[in-house]
Amino acid sequence: MKTSLILTLVGPDRPGLVSAVSACAGAHGANWMESRLTRLAGQFAGVVRLEVDAAAADALERGLSGLVAEGLKLAVVRADAGAAAQARLARLELVGHDRPGIVRDISAVLARHGLSIDALETACESASMSGEPLFRARAELAVPAGIGLAAVRNDLEALANELMVDLDFEEVSEPAG
């Protein structure tokens, strides 16, 4: 039986951190299933899902704890490798002048309608013509069965008008059945 270990990693960025994590995983027979790794303000930050035989999970966790010596702060959570239920998926893309509260306001609408954020990427950059700070967001959303997207779309569009941002919201798939 397989189990998943979800790792969160944060520490000063330097070459070799991903290699250290993947070497430890490989030494314990774990498979690197998915990850999101980035550099933020000079820090390495990541989330990784490893899949390993349940009998080897304790040894893998002990091995991973050795990464503290590499300067990483590490948290490990176990999850059932096959537990994820497939919901419908939707995508949201947003661009507009940056201001505090955009993520708060958009995520509040999504939560009110019962949508879950599967992935969220945001960035601030200079607008090409004016140089003003421009905020971009892209989210992949899980839509539970029975949730209609028309009301979600209406609320998001009303908020986009209020925030004066461009927003695109669309369903991208139906659940596997």
Report what the structure shows.
The chain is α+β, with helices and mostly antiparallel strands and 177 residues long. The protein contains 4 helices and 8 strands; from the N terminus they run E-H-E-E-H-E-E-H-E-E-H-E. The strands form 2 sheets. A 4-stranded antiparallel beta sheet has the order 2-3-1-4, with helices on one face. A 4-stranded antiparallel beta sheet has the order 6-7-5-8, covered by helices on one side. Strand 2 (31-40) and strand 3 (43-53) form a beta hairpin. It is flat and about 50 Å long.
Give the helix tally: 4
What is the overall shape?
flat
What's the order of the H and E elements?
EHEEHEEHEEHE
Instruction: Walk across the major sheet and give the strand order.
Output: 2-3-1-4
- Multimerization status: single chain
* Number of separate strands: 8
The first-to-last residue Cα distance is 24 Å
**Helical/strand content category:** alpha+beta
Largest sheet: 4 strands, antiparallel
Low-pLDDT residue intervals, each spanning 5 or more residues? none
Rg, rounded, reads: 20 Å
Strand content: over 45%
Portion of residues within helices: 25-40%
Tell me, rounded to a whole number, the average pLDDT. 91
Give the secondary structure arrangement, pairings included:
Blueprint: E1 2-12, H1 17-27, E2 31-40, E3 43-53, H2 57-65, E4 73-80, E5 88-97, H3 102-112, E6 116-126, E7 133-143, H4 149-163, E8 165-173
Antiparallel strand pairs: 1-3, 1-4, 2-3, 5-7, 5-8, 6-7
